[in-house]
Amino acid sequence: MDIRKVKKLIELMEESDLSEIEVKEGEDCVRISRQLGVQTPATPPTVVLPLETEKPAATPSAATSSRGQIVHAPMVGTFYQAPSPGSPPFFTVGDRIKVGDVLCIIESMKMLNQVKSEYAGTLEAVLVLNEQAVEFDQPLFTIV
Amino acid sequence: MDIRKVKKLIELMEESDLSEIEVKEGEDCVRISRQLGVQTPATPPTVVLPLETEKPAATPSAATSSRGQIVHAPMVGTFYQAPSPGSPPFFTVGDRIKVGDVLCIIESMKMLNQVKSEYAGTLEAVLVLNEQAVEFDQPLFTIV
Amino acid sequence: MRKVLIANRGEIALRIQRSCRELGIQTVAAYAAVDREQLHLKFADEIVCISKNDYLCSENLVSAALTTGCDAVHPGYGFLSENAEFCRLVEDNGLTYIGPTSEQIAEMGNKILARLAFSALGISPVPGSEEEIDNLHDAATLVSQIGYPVVVKAAFGGGGRGIRIVNDEAKLEGAFSAAKAEAAAVFGDGAVYIEKFLDDARHIEVQIFGDGKGAVIHFGTRECSIQRRQQKVIEEAPAPNISQSILDALCERAVAAVAAIGYRNAGTLEFLYQDGEFYFVEMNTRIQVEHPVTEAITGHDLLRLQIETADSNLSLTQNDIMFNGSAIECRINAEDDFYLPSPGLLTEVIFPGGVGVRVDSHIYAGYRVPHQFDSLVAKLIVWDRDRPRTLLKMKRALEEMTITGIETNKVKLQNILAHEKFREGKVNIRFLDQLTG
Amino acid sequence: MRKVLIANRGEIALRIQRSCRELGIQTVAAYAAVDREQLHLKFADEIVCISKNDYLCSENLVSAALTTGCDAVHPGYGFLSENAEFCRLVEDNGLTYIGPTSEQIAEMGNKILARLAFSALGISPVPGSEEEIDNLHDAATLVSQIGYPVVVKAAFGGGGRGIRIVNDEAKLEGAFSAAKAEAAAVFGDGAVYIEKFLDDARHIEVQIFGDGKGAVIHFGTRECSIQRRQQKVIEEAPAPNISQSILDALCERAVAAVAAIGYRNAGTLEFLYQDGEFYFVEMNTRIQVEHPVTEAITGHDLLRLQIETADSNLSLTQNDIMFNGSAIECRINAEDDFYLPSPGLLTEVIFPGGVGVRVDSHIYAGYRVPHQFDSLVAKLIVWDRDRPRTLLKMKRALEEMTITGIETNKVKLQNILAHEKFREGKVNIRFLDQLTG
Question: Which of B4, C352, D22, D179 could link D152 by a cystine bridge, Cβ 3.0 to 4.6 Å?
Fold first, then answer.
């Protein structure tokens, strides 16, 4: 499923008064729905189902939020998964996390800010790439 | 799945009163649904005929149209119910009307235009006042 | 003037409504039943349905004006705006026609007479016949004098109909008969004339204004060479890449000629410009779609001036008209990629705004564009201090223009704006047809 | 300049976006999560969420500029636009601040210092204290010199907070303490000063522009006397009913003073005008909400000029600034009849258009006006050749302004416009509060 096709479907939906579109192509399936009466045509519809979106890492967070905890970016800056260039990452997927563990560093105006975990559990996913710019509240990790 | 096909389906649906369309083509499947009864802000109110909304005099016509015939103004002008000032009206409510009877005069640019009945029956209602200006297609009489 | 009947629809009806309101004049909006949802009906003082789906019913329009107590009628553009009989009907019923006299409309409506009249006043028309050409022999004789290519035109034509371009002798007979037949069918008169076809010409026009008593002023030039099949798409003011002294001389000649015929109200002299010469084509005896670009560079409201001039003298002199900056208008049409009309329900309408941006439009989210009329849904006009800045602003404004539910020519407009020749102001009237095939 | 971070929201964010786009400069729109549906985000090159629901997070804004490769930051108005620390953070991170230097913001942010600075440059402030008044005894001494009524003001104040009017001695102690307490609470500094309260004054301001190297030009005057509780509601340019020579002299004095401090970028000197005298109140070191009325009478894009002047010299001289006609701005606020905010979903938005009408707004049908911010949803600016025509045009445009789903102050604006005193240009800054009680 091409992401542009999904985007087009969303546009079609926004232009209409539909509440749901579902498209299956062989193995692939997209279902797009929205609550009319609550949301308005101008508001973008909710996209459900895991599919590859433009920010590949960000979408799974929505899917896993019901069963895991999400760690969000507390500030805007550059995401580093390791304490220094060349070092191994603080944690990799599958590692055990304790409350207070440093999960990553966000650099903001030359300041290196540690992001600590508020949750204990297993690191299920890293949702952003190393050295990627992150915005406020962007999902960074899921911990289950 | 061609996106234009989905678009066409949505158009079909919008032109109809359907709440769901599902199309399967071998492996492929499209399902489109909407909640009817929920009115979206951007959609305009149902199209109503202008004459029925603005002009109080016209409203009875809508009510009686199912059981009578309506004579509409064929032109814009001033409505006269009598052949000359001071004369009795051509017809009053309850009178029998034959096809071709002159029902009223509409004055348009000093020209007096006779409006003749296309219907036979009983004059049920006069929907405009004498000497009132009438617009094109405005209901003038009902004949049952 | 106290109350005006607006005998038109769409953006120009709203435009008239706005100027009347600002002058404290009441309005009666005449509308066709299919047009009940038009924006200007919400703001008019009274509304009168005059037909099912047209604006050509002279009697109903005049009668609507009389029964509602109007003292004037504004015809807008298109429809009956250059119809001398309609104008005469308005006059005969004691109403003020906001425009020229019926005689002036009739004279300029006959393109052969108009060519002669302006030629006598020192404004050279495109080389060609001085009278109607009613047989093939005369046509051949004329062409032997002016040479191919030529164009055969309906004497009472307009809107690009009844026109045939002929490149060689073999095609003359067929084109001549076809033009005559179309002229008779469309305009009710088969009279045609023949002009030299100028193959690298620009369309330049001069906006003039007269008071009917010999006082005439001009509002400068417009360039309208971006046309598809004789329909203007993008217009600008002033005409670029021509020296100011040449344009000034053109305007002065136009003013002198129009003053000589005692012309009243707004009018436009259309010229073709090729090889440094201007050739008169015709005079439009009404306000034009593209008038806002002139308003943008002069700061004058031409509709207001039309109304003010209809029953009193011109309050302005030529010295009151100052020119400043550059303006471009894009016509936003409801049409698909193949130029086919795209009527329908508008789901989203967001117009661009900001400094120097004007949108004249009767559409809004929830409005249904009817299929019965012209496809123009909005005019986007931008102004800035010079042409390069105006081009950049138009690019920005077009990007913001959001109309969903129907298809529009937005992308086509963007492509024209991005074209090097347009940016350099080096186009002719064949540019767009050659670009799009 | 290649890429600008827009550190604001609403109509001014869209305004900045538009001018950047016309200059070919890329934009990064910083937005709070609740503001995701804003119009300018659709047109920005990149968007970055910087907070949940505010625009006061200096670090996130600067970090967003750095991580997206911006080379400049535009602060808009309100929020951090007059915050010297934010400006310094931008400067310290090697970014261009589109506005004055942090030192200039700091100096003018302290109203006591600003009064002294301009006084030294020959611009008389409203009579009052030359330094902070930190005890009741000094307050009483000063008042005995200048006489009641007086006004106690926060030194670092703004937006009408930390202000107390005192009519007699019995009220002085209470007002003094209250003003100090409010100043400390709202602005983090309890410093106050005392001015004579001018009870029949008009608010007149001068728009200036400097290049930071001593070159300064002015863009004439604005009248902003229509205020409710120190919040401007209707503004116009030029200030009416004051002779041009007096206004010219004011502008020249303002230019000389601002040149002496080497001021950079856009700034506004606010004056009170009473009994034929101008008294300096404060200087705003940012673009103002009402800047479009100045753009309308000069034809210059002040936002564009802000961007151009941020990293190069002024390209204009005073002779390039011509003044033409009259402009009025109405602020359309989402508020109910009792001035309470009226946030919510917009079901219908149809803006007025036509010649000389401009709407700057970020709203559209389907947009939800959030409750977290200022209630300004649109600025309606009209221009015409003279003030009477401009008033008529504003009346027409306001009638057309259609916003449903929330309540707005449209009727209140219409009432002000219809008021005889406003129409005659004979209002003072107490007019609206007296009108509405």
Answer: D179
